[in-house]
Task: inverse folding
């Protein structure tokens, strides 16, 4: 399972791929990982807040609603667990992801200047 997610991650983040061991460690440290043939999402919950650690969809499968569906699955799980807020950060240049999060109801709540190799990180949150 972790090998397949790692292959998918490499296609989604070619400049900073995570190996299978990193996904294994994330799972061991308490992260939730939901993955299918074409997509994955990883999140961590601390008390009544959750943070999206990573999300990616196979380049050939993008634009068909897979990311929205995965965010929906995550949100349902979090609501059942009593989580009240979801947090994330995203590169200010990642228009696809920013649009995705806005479409799913996330609001910008701050910035970390030059966080990703000189590019700002936009901080976003959603109350659920
Ligand atoms: C961001 C990503 C996960 C979106 O996955 P996806 O399955 O293609 O997204 P969806 O089909 O569910 O799209 C949902 C919405 O996201 C936005 N969106 C998705 N791709 C977009 C693009 N290329 N340009 C602009 N907006 C885009 C749109 O608002 C879209 O809604 P619409 O189709 O009604 O316009 C995918 O592009 C990806 O894996 N990118 C590389 C990894 C990455 O950047 N992850 C996020 C790190 S924070």
Result:
């Amino acid at each position: 399972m972790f090998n397949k997610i790692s292959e998918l991650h490499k296609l989604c983040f070619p400049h900073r791929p995570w190996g299978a061991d990193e996904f294994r460690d994330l799972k061991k440290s308490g992260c939730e990982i939901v993955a299918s043939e074409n997509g994955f999402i990883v999140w961590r919950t601390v008390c009544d807040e959750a943070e999206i650690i990573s999300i990616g969809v196979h380049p050939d499968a993008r634009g068909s609603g897979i990311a929205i569906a995965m965010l929906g699955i995550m949100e349902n799980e979090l609501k059942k667990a009593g989580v009240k807020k979801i947090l994330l950060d995203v590169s200010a240049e990642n228009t696809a992801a920013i649009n995705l999060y806005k479409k799913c109801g996330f609001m910008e709540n701050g910035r970390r200047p030059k966080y990703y190799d000189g590019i700002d990180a936009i901080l976003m949150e959603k109350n659920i």
